[in-house]
Design a protein that fits this description.
The chain contains two helices and two strands; from the N terminus they run ββαα. It is an alpha+beta fold and 97 residues long. α1 packs antiparallel against α2.
Length: 97
């Protein structure tokens, strides 16, 4: 999906850059700055729904794989929410200035 902010209103609340899935000192994924917070939060809600389904359907066999998947989904979701929150805080600071 291409990220284009050309059509965004000037007062849109946007995400900030936030890394996730760090391993051995390297960030493997990140939330890009400039994405509308509404879109990022929709994706976070979708990921939370996926996590809920995995939790509800967990079986004793394959539990390690399910746990690993949940950890990855949790890390990505946390980055989306954190990026959105930081973007909202930055937006509020511009209003106070």
């Amino acid at each position: 999906m291409e990220n284009s902010t050309a059509s965004l209103p000037t007062n849109a609340v946007l995400t900030v850059n936030k890394t996730c899935l760090k391993t051995d000192g390297h960030a493997l994924l990140c939330v890009r700055a400039g994405v509308p917070v509404e879109l990022a939060m929709e994706q976070a809600a979708t990921l939370l729904g996926c996590m809920e389904q995995l939790i509800m359907s967990r079986e004793p066999r394959g539990k390690e794989l399910q746990t690993a998947a949940l950890q990855y989904l949790n890390d990505i979701t946390r980055a989306l929410v954190s990026s959105s929150f930081d973007g909202l805080c930055a937006y509020e600071k511009t209003l106070a200035a």
